[in-house]
Each structure stands twice: as structure tokens, then as C-alpha cells.
Amino acid sequence: MPRKRQSKSRINVQDVAEKAGVSVATVSRAFNLPDMVSEDVRARVIATAKRLGYSPNAAARALRSRKTHIVGAVIPSLDYAIYAKMVNAFQSSISQHGYMTIVLTTGFDNRTIFDKVKLLVERGAEALVFVGAIEDPALRRFLKESPLPAVTTYSHLPNEIVPSIGFDNAESVASMVGHLADLGHKEFALVSSIADGNDRQRARIEGYRTGLRRLKLSGVDRVFSHPYSIEDGAAAMHEIYNACPQVTAIVCTSDVHAFGVLSECRRMGLRVPQDVSVTGFDDAEYATRLEPPLTTVFVPADEMGVAAATALHKALAKDQKPTGVRLDTKLIVRLSSGSPAKAQDLTSARRAGRSR
Amino acid sequence: MPRKRQSKSRINVQDVAEKAGVSVATVSRAFNLPDMVSEDVRARVIATAKRLGYSPNAAARALRSRKTHIVGAVIPSLDYAIYAKMVNAFQSSISQHGYMTIVLTTGFDNRTIFDKVKLLVERGAEALVFVGAIEDPALRRFLKESPLPAVTTYSHLPNEIVPSIGFDNAESVASMVGHLADLGHKEFALVSSIADGNDRQRARIEGYRTGLRRLKLSGVDRVFSHPYSIEDGAAAMHEIYNACPQVTAIVCTSDVHAFGVLSECRRMGLRVPQDVSVTGFDDAEYATRLEPPLTTVFVPADEMGVAAATALHKALAKDQKPTGVRLDTKLIVRLSSGSPAKAQDLTSARRAGRSR
DNA sequence: TTGTACGCGTTATCAG
DNA sequence: CTGATAACGCGTACAA
């Protein structure tokens, strides 16, 4: 059963106008400015449009109205739960307002970030979301001059070029140090991701150091930076064990690393928290099911995504700059942190012969 | 220092043409059909375009050329590593060919899937990626008639409406059952996700049953379906322990569930694999670091994303239907599966007083 | 090789 | 309230 006109691939306003016996302008208005069309005409137009299976051509609409209803997100990778979670909330939230999200990933290569932004802008992205500090000079210049609403997430940066919708990474880690200090720890070590080109990690490292200095604790220079994987967390634990056995508290800037650290502690025969306390960052789903359940920092990833969507939508609707939001993290104390046993540290644990 | 013309928001071909002293057609050709433009003119056009910061308007280009260079992906959620990983590889791969991806999530509500597709089509998506079987009747109808290249992932479905780029879920689980049978297990149980509206889960459940029947093993009806979370895996383990203590092999259709099962085993005092063997599905990053390291099925998520991108790009370039690909999973044997101890099962483990 | 002019499908402006 | 018509910016026959 062949269709009437296979020549034209898609129904357009013209087709609807003819079938409904009105002008194309009226068809357009029936959809976009319904108040300007009489009740009956509008009903007829809508009906025939539906019957014909009409849907407006987004390109033509964008060309004429100068609104693409597309927003762009530039993130390191979707393969990392922390970013995927935020983006998931963002796109789901902003889609409620009729915007679609194009996600571009840098693969952690910050040199490509401005290229991604240019691609997005060429596509007509009306707003942009980033992760962390805007470090690329060209991008900074662009964002400073551009009227494009943009926000960045995961960092709280009062003086950034674009408003930030994030939390205080440094303070979050500092308060974790405070928690461990309260338990009686004095000798610390930090396991972080690679700080280069990653202001969140730098802030967390700084927070660790600030926390230690504030409380006159040891370990300011015991920072072990590794790629972001469970295995690397395990490797870091190994290093710490060999390099500074006096440590009783190991702070990690991610749950991923903490996972590896805990795993390696077990393999090395170290008891957590009796021999060493271990803490994470993110509050991943598995944090409660690690052995022992992980003391960590809850990061409001979903909330950030929703807040970013809200801020950008508001900016778009009111044609003004978006406003930043500072969100709170939350210290979640579980069983991986505890008081250090008297005169107990990695050295004595080793002496006790429990290591492999 | 105010700009020359703030009235026009963006540089267009006209501007470039004037500044370069050529016609708009030449500007367009200089970019799209460089062979049709003389060396020097082209150079001049490119130079002035660059100087002026010209970038073509995607909407106008799409309107005229009928090519949006946008592809759409409809997946359950980006918040699940398995989907995020595939989409990450897909978008990164297809972006190399100049296509951008718009990801829409259903939040596991299959009733909304056709709406998402319509949105994508209205946006001018030139190709579509799905996950699993196409079950929505309206969507099936649409895809059957539409010339839009589309593929689905994560399932191997030779007779699906669109080509599939996935693996044999049933056979993967069946071979896992075979592995456990080889070890001497006779009493099985399965922990799966909710099968409703999820053909991957249904296939895996079916594979479990097929595997058991094939080898005349027990447990065909011991299928425990729970939501997809670590905690739910733990809950399932609890149920199994109470409902069928004779079980010595617990097959999970995801590593997430296996995580919970292993965790709960530990809390219950059951030794893995001495008291019970546990297997997963996905080969998540943490599989090697669970206690004990998890025997599981490797799923080629990245490969699927890349293959889907390749298939769609090829279809787009040659203007023909994409072709499906059957990918292989791989059984990864680690320490969570082993021979059942003689006359050992959950009952005897309980009798041994090791349970809480 | 280059320029002219039209059309892609909409929305916005301006009459009526 | 409705209709005719002019853009939006680009790509491409067609003419030169």
C-alpha cells in the first residue's frame, strides 16, 4: 500500500496548511501562539497535523527562531560513575524544559576542551556545562566574552569565569582529617588521583594539607598520586606500607582508591580500622558493602546535575547570567575509621606478623 | 573596545564573502568543495574566515543539506556503568566521523521510549542506537517503516527489526552453568534483575534454565529477581539461604548483584567458594578485588559502542542498512567458583555454626 | 573558475 | 484573528 507522495520525505507546515484550509502562518501559530488563534481553527489545525503525522523541522525552526534548544556538556568521560551520574541528572532534568543535551568527552585531555566547546557552539548550543575549573586560556577568553550561559560543576569557585555549582573540595577533605584527628590519629597519608589538570584533586590535596597543618598533624608530604583505578589504590597502599609504616590514617580522595586500599590492606593482613583507618570520597554505592564499610564523603552528584540544569534553564528563560550554587557534602562515618590502637601502627602490625 | 557590529550575533558566509571580495557561493565552496576553487582564492577565503572567526551555522546547513550530523541514543540510564560505558565508547567513536550524539534516557520506563525516539527524529537524528530488544509496538512499527539506520546493543537478536550489535546473553549464562557443573555443582540458584521489559535479563534467566536442563541439574525454579543494586543482591542471598540451603552454586546475572551476594555471604559466615560458589556477569572493574575475586562473564561494552558507531557510520555513508555484529563474551574464572566440598552445602555450613 | 539566484521549513512582521 | 511574505544562513543548479 504505497503512500501518496513518497517524494517529500516529511510533512511540513505547508502540507498541514493546505489540508486544514488555512495559511502556513496559522499553522505555526496554532502550535506556538495558540492564544492568537480561534478555538475552532486551532483544533482543526492540530487535528490535521496529528492526522498527517506532522512534526516541525528542528533545523528550520532553529534557523528562523535562533533557538536550537540544545545545551552542551563537556566532561572528562562518561565511563566514570561520578561524571555519568551528574550528567544523567542534568540531561534528565533539563530535558523537562525542552532542551536536549549533547555530551562531549575530553578523555581527560584538557588540551582538546576548547575544540569541543567550539563544536558545541557551532551546533548552536545555547548553554554549556563543565566540570571543574576552566583552565584552558583560550576557553577562558572565550567564556569571558561570550554571552553564552555556562556553569561548571564539582568545584566551588567563587571567582571562576563562569558560576560554579559545586562543593568545597578542600574543606570536605579537611573535615575528614578533622574526623580522623578526633579519633586520635596523628600520622597521615593521602591517596589522590593525578592532580595535573584536575583542580578537584588539587583542592582535595590542599584540603588534606590544610587540615593537617591546622591540627599540627604529620603527613603533609605523604601524598601518593596515582591514576584513578582500584588497582592503583592498591598500589598506593603498598607504597605507603613500605615508605611510611608509622601511618595510622589513610585518606583517599575517591572511593575507587579507597576500595583498592582496603582490598590491599586485607591482602597484606592489616586490619581496618584497628591497624589503620581508611577513608574515601564520593559515597559510591558500594561504600557500605566494602570490608569494613567505608567512612567517606557524600558528594551530591545528582543534586549538582539538577541544580546546573535549573540554573541554566533559568538563565536561558530570563536571558541573564546563571547564578552559582554552593552545595554541601556530608561526612559519612562508617567502620573503616576508628581510634588507632595504643602504639599501634603499620610497623607494629607488621611486627605482629600479620602481614604477608 | 566595542566590536564593529554587535547587531549581528555571528559571522556568516556573507560577511566572509564581502571581506574576501568573493561571492557567498565561493565561500561555501572553499569549505565544502575545495577542488572547485582556485588555490589562491581558497586560501584567501579560508584566511579571512579564520580572521573573522567564521563558523558555519549548523541549523542552516542542516536545513539546506538535509543532514544534521546528529545521531540519537536511547538507553535506560547513564547512571548504570554498563550503559554509560557503551555510550561513552559510542559517542567518542562516532564523533570521529563528525557526528554528535544526543543521549536520551528512559529511566527504565519503557512506555516512554517511543516518545524519546520521536523527539530525536524531530531533531533530525540520522541514526539511532538502542539497548536490547525493541518491545514497544509503536516503535517497532516506526522502525519497520522508517529508513533511519538503527541498531540495538547488548542483545544478539538475529530476527529483530533492527540489526543487533551484541552478544548471546542466554548462552553466556548457560556456559557459566557449565563451568560450575564441571566443578561438580548440582544445586543451583539464580539471582537476576527484574525481567519485565528487559530482554537481556530474560535471556540470561533462560540461559540459566537451559544450562541446567542440558546437564540435568537442579534449580530451574530457583530464580530470585530483584532490583539492580548491591543491597538487593545481598537480600537475594538472604532469601536463598532461607529458602534453599541445599544450593552450592549461585549464579548472578550482574556483578552488582554478585557483589551483594558475596558481601552477604561474608556477613553470614559462609565461605566462598568452599561453602558456596558465586558468579557474576559484566566483569566490572571491581570484580578482581571482591572477596574472593569474582568469576564472571566479560561483556565487551566498549567494543559494542565502537561497533555500533562503525555500523551506523557505514550505513550513513553508503546509504544502506547497517549490519549487525555478534560479539563474544568471555568466561573469566577467578576464585569465587570452586568445587563444592564433599557433602557440603549451605545446610552443612549452617550446621558447622559458621553462620551468624 | 566564479557569480547569481533559488529553496530548504519555519517563524516573525506587517497588513488586513 | 488571519493571510501574505520576508527573512534566517547555507548549498547548489545554472549561467557566465
Helix and strand layout, with pairings?
Two copies of one chain form a homodimer.
Chain A: H1 13-20, H2 24-32, H3 39-52, H4 58-65, E1 70-75, H5 81-94, E2 100-105, H6 113-122, E3 128-131, H7 137-145, E4 150-153, E5 164-166, H8 169-182, E6 188-192, H9 199-214, E7 223-225, H10 230-243, E8 249-252, H11 255-268, E9 277-279, E10 296-298, H12 301-318, E11 325-326, E12 330-332, H13 346-351
Chain B binds a DNA duplex (16 and 16 nucleotides) through helix 2 and helix 4.
Description:
2 copies of one chain form a homodimer. With 356 residues, chain A is α/β, with parallel strands linked by helices. Helices cover 43% and strands 13% of the residues of chain A. Chain A contains 13 helices and 12 strands. In chain A, the strands form 3 sheets. The first copy, chain A, has a 6-stranded parallel β-sheet with strand order 2-1-3-4-5-11, with helices on both faces. Chain A has a 4-stranded parallel β-sheet with strand order 7-6-8-9, with helices on both faces. In chain A, α5 links the parallel β1 and β2 (100-105). Chain A is elongated, with a radius of gyration of 27 Å. At the A-B interface, α4, α5, β2, α6 and α10 of A face α4, α5, β2, α6 and α10 of B. The structure holds a DNA duplex (16 and 16 nucleotides).
Read across the widest sheet of chain A, the strand sequence of neighbours is: 2-1-3-4-5-11
What structural class do the secondary elements of chain A suggest? alpha/beta
**Oligomeric description of these chains:** homodimer
Number of helices of chain A: 13
Radius of gyration of chain A: 27 Å
Tell the overall outline of chain A.
Answer: elongated
List low-pLDDT spans of chain A.
1-7
What proportion of the residues of chain A is helical, as a percent range? 40-55%
| Major β-sheet profile of chain A | 6 strands, parallel
Look at the structure and give the mean pLDDT of chain A. 93
Number of strands of chain A: 12
Give the topology string of chain A: H per helix, E per strand.
HHHHEHEHEHEEHEHEHEHEEHEEH
Q: Roughly how many Å apart are the termini of chain A? A: 76 Å
Strand content of chain A: 5-15%
Using a beta-carbon cutoff below 8 angstroms, give the protein chain pair with the largest interface and the number of residues from each chain: A-B, 48 and 48 residues
